[in-house]
Design brief:
- This protein is mainly β and 174 residues long.
- The chain has one domain: Electron Transport, Fmn-binding Protein, Chain A (Pnp Oxidase, Chain A).
- Helix content is 14%, strand content 42%.
- It is built from three helices and twelve strands; from the N terminus they run αβββββαβαββββββ.
- The strands form three sheets. It has a seven-stranded antiparallel sheet. A three-stranded antiparallel sheet has the order 1-11-12. It has a two-stranded antiparallel ribbon with strand order 7-8.
- A hairpin with a 5-residue loop joins strand 7 and strand 8.
- Its EC number is 1.5.1.-.
- One of its GO terms (molecular function) is oxidoreductase activity.
- This is Flavin reductase family protein.
- Keywords: Oxidoreductase.
Length: 174
């Protein structure tokens, strides 16, 4: 559903501001991932806390990025990408790939797959995906992608993001 197809609110319906909406999701913890791809023959990537599982059969995930992201044209053009699920000791990687105006691959440990996409080392796991669809939604681009390869079962603990801060998960309840 594109932004043009969003049904308008009825007259007088209560509205939630962008700041109120952001505050709700800042409090909601999310796993931290880095999405990498080839763009113009070079490695490119960004941090994402919006990765979700969509379907197990076939295996499809989704993520979003801001419509104003400098990598939006590359994501719109690519056929494949890699989603890396970061380990709890990779806060520096998450911060580097979230930074603007820097070469995110300088000092990053990575190697290209035979298919060309850059793969970061030290993550809990990664999945290679073929892009299925790109949908403009509000002020974001929603991307769905079919998982076609994985580095295997996750190893180690996941990095989590909540209230603009990186966290480790604590002990399981009950």
């Amino acid at each position: 559903m594109s932004a043009e197809h969003v049904a308008p609110l009825p007259p007088g319906a209560p509205q939630v501001s962008a700041e109120e909406f952001k505050a709700v999701f800042r409090h909601h913890p999310a796993g931290v991932a880095v999405v990498t791809l080839r763009a113009g023959g070079r490695p490119a990537g960004f941090t994402a806390t919006s990765v979700i599982s969509v379907s197990a059969g076939p295996p499809i995930l989704a993520f979003s990025l801001a419509a104003t992201s400098s990598l939006r044209p590359a994501v719109e053009a690519t056929e494949s990408l890699v989603v890396h699920f970061l380990a709890d000791d990779q806060r520096d990687v998450a911060a580097r790939f979230a930074a603007r105006g820097v070469d995110r691959f300088v000092d990053a440990a990575w190697a290209p797959l035979p298919t060309g996409e850059p793969v970061l080392t030290g993550t809990t796991t990664w999945v290679r995906c073929l892009v299925e669809d790109r949908i403009a939604v509000g002020d974001s681009l929603l991307v769905t992608a079919r998982v076609v390869a994985t580095s295997g079962p996750p190893e180690g603990e996941a990095l989590v993001y909540r209230d603009r801060t990186y966290h480790r998960l604590g002990a399981a309840l009950g």
